[in-house]
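Why run this: before we spend reagent on co-expression, it is cheaper to look at a predicted model of the complex and decide which construct boundaries make sense. The entries below are exactly what would go into the expression plan.
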Amino acid sequence: MIECKNLKKVYKNGDVETVALRGVTFKIEKGEFVAIIGPSGSGKSTLMHILGVLDTPTSGKYFLEGKEVSRRSEDELSDLRREKIGFVFQSFNLLPRTTVLQNVMLPLVYSGMPIKERERKARETLKYVSLEENKFLNLSNQLSGGQMQRVAVARALVNNPSIILADEPTGNLDTKTSHIVMKTFQELNSQGHTIVLITHEMEVAQFTRRIISVRDGLIEKDTKSNAH
Amino acid sequence: MLIDLFRETIRSLSGNKARSSLTILGIVIGIASVITMVAIGQGAKSTIESNIEAIGSNLIIVMPGSQRVGGISQGAGSSQTLTLEDADAIKSQVQNVKAAAPEASRRYQVTAKGNNTNTQIVGTLRDYLAVRNITMNIGSFFSDQQTKSSAKVAILGPTARDDLFGVNVNPVGQSIKIKNVDFQVIGVTEAKGGSGFSNPDNNIYVPLATVQHFLAGNSYLSNVSITAADQASMTSVQQQISDLLLARHKISDPTQADFSIMNQNDIIATATSITSTFTILLSSIAGISLLVGGIGIMNMMLTNVTERTREIGLRKAVGIRKVYINLQFLAEAVVLTFLGGAIGVLLGWAASLAVNKFVSLNTRISLSAVLLAFGVSAVVGIVFGFYPARRAANLNPIEALRYE
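The model came back. Tokens follow.
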């Protein structure tokens, strides 16, 4: 499903070069639930940007569903993100002053899909992440933290992506809500969704079945568990 | 796709109504002032044109030239070279002349029942009615018979009547004194409105022969008004008159002519060019306010892009292509200017009507001005929306998502 071969990423800021990734190689199969863990500055965010084709590596190869995607044009990367990847962001990134339904429909805009069909899909997905139907027409900023995150998950799922990339999805939540959200991810995974999670909390990473530790731009440890 | 674009645009514009409406206001004022200024300019132009046309249609006026005393010009109209015989010759020998009215005019003191005024006494023939488009309000114009017999009869313009007898009084049958000679009033003309040069409503008309015998004491004319058969023949009529009079006055060099010929078209052209300059001046001032409105749009769109950086990042992350982000922000700017344009047209239209009603300046709203204003507002939207939209489309999604 995902294969990285010797990924390197160097940021240039004037004459100063910052190396974020020094050569990362790993593979993620379909249906896996993986946590990428590391302290800040470890390069995990850079890795996630490359996995989410928001960024391209300086060198090395990235295969998504068997296709090399590390050297593509901006529009091709846009299309890949729309078709293959669902993002869940730390700060939810829901559009304010916009209804829940419209937020979930956002990735379907400009897709040529009729508006009725989009709405049907969005409702279906929201039910799938068990958000109460009476919240569908609420404005996104009227929801609680856990509800917002569920809307964000629904938005990530609405396109039937191959992988879900979650960037610190519990970063803004209290422990109790974090548990509920992680349970949701576990459920999604048991339904067959491939999920890659970025976090710096070991506690959160424990919910997954494989933990890749990143430190100083290199993979430090790659452990699989069958904890649940 | 287009419906999506429109929907997204309306959604984000209505998300910040206060700011959207303030931005629109700039364009509204710009467009409204352009429309009003052009309407005032066009109105002035048509007023002047219709005033000139009220003098008569297809009119050519022959005036005596300047008198030269030892090579020193005494000014146009000063010489006494034009006679009734010249006028008759023009009427009978020049082709395509519909009517020719000789005129001997001068200002005299006029009294009636203790009121007195100083006004233009026009001595002429009955043809004058047709040549100058004069219609009678009360009574009748003098007849050819009255001209022949040098009858002491007078026809008053409505303003002259108001001055001598009072507003809307019927003066027919009363008598007036012109230069201490008694005249009987036999009619009043219909009001024509002022024409800038001389106001025909203020004139008093008497038979030409009467003027020559009792008032002027000579047989010279102050001008001859000629109506050409149609617009197309005016140039040839003017040329024929010139040739005829040169021959009659025995002048071989046209530059030494002792008369001058004025053509109504020339007068209109001059007046039109003056009002056009005026319109351009007014509309360029209004255009500047439109430009300022456009810069307001750009300012708002730039703020908008900065404020919605995270939203743009999100849109990019969920795979919306650059071109749609670009189009959306451009569409927002265009919708704003277009709305502003539409409201501006309505407001400008209302303002023109108000000017027409309360300032009694004639205004005319032309379709071309409305279309121009609309076109300009759309162009303003595209031009001033282009840079902010490009900036939005070129944002790096990672940095945009991190933006606080």
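DSSP finds seven helices and ten strands in chain A. Helices of chain A lie at 44-51, 74-84, 100-105, 115-128, 145-157, 175-190, 202-205. Bring this page to Monday's planning discussion.
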